Predict the 3D structure of the following.
Amino acid sequence: MGERADVVVIGAGVVGLAVARALALAGREVILLERNALFGAETSSRNSEVIHAGLYYRPGGWRARLCVRGKEKLYAYCAGRGVSHVRCEKLIVATDAPDIDRLKALEGVARRNGVSDLTLISGVEAAALEPGLRCEAALLSPSSGVIDSHGLMLSLLGDFENAGGVFACSSPVLGGRVTARGIDLDVGGAEPLTLSARLVVNSAGLWADVVARSIAGLQPSHIPMIRPAKGQYFTVSGKAPFSRLIYPLHTADSQGVHYTRDLGGQARLGPDIRWDASLGDYAVDETRRRMFHDAAAKFWPALDFAQLQAGYAGQRPKATGPGEEGDFIFSTPEAHGTKGYIGLYAIESPGLTACLAIADHVTSLA
């Protein structure tokens, strides 16, 4: 059985939902396909739920530009729609004196990204804000926060459906073909069908490269290999000790084991980064408990090892390797030569923060 569609968006994570919503609000007829039985079942529901300020990313890159732009759009959207969130602030800490210069360099990167509200404070000042915190100096980021990611996705889905969009869960894309009219997609599920779309937006996250390679006619040279970088979290029992987020200095491929809390006050540490996990591996390696404790104890010396409990794990769709800084990849017809296909690859952190800005960008491309 075959059906025609104007636009098909593949993947109902937070970015796919935001993109489908924006296209529907722009007047396009949109079908949103999701391989799982519910939206946001993978990367979008297995992260820190942090609203990032835009500090870390390469100036001029997509992550830097869309994070800073998306942060303000996201705060405004949450306030307007009643999505639970809080600007709880973040402290990026230097736990050793030699790291203060790195902290100052990070402040310079952030300012080039358009983040102008940072304050460099001493360790004493940081401890006054957060008793129990130990550091030599810290950057205070007042525009960082946390969000109810499920509530956000539920709101985006409601907007999408109210604009006439159709959401189809348990509908995996099994393959497809580039045609003269657009792209034909073979969709599985309880009632398999073929969808002939004028435009396909591939927002399949961890599976985006697999989906792209299953569509005959797309140029393989323009499909990056996605690597599932696994990140694990440990929860911390007892009352959350800090009201602000506490982050160590980042590396090229990770923001390090940091302290966050959810809107209910549950404290957690993570994520680490593992490059040896298979796609879909969400098991938590409890032998990493000591590493998590020791990493957090550098800024939280009173942390009791017995407080740590295995939490959850997620995977980030990276197109780079260990020690390499990546960026969002927008693969357009101008780049790959196939009319009617936009590929979104390596949309990892800060994809949640940037989702509305990403959606605006994809709508402009479409």
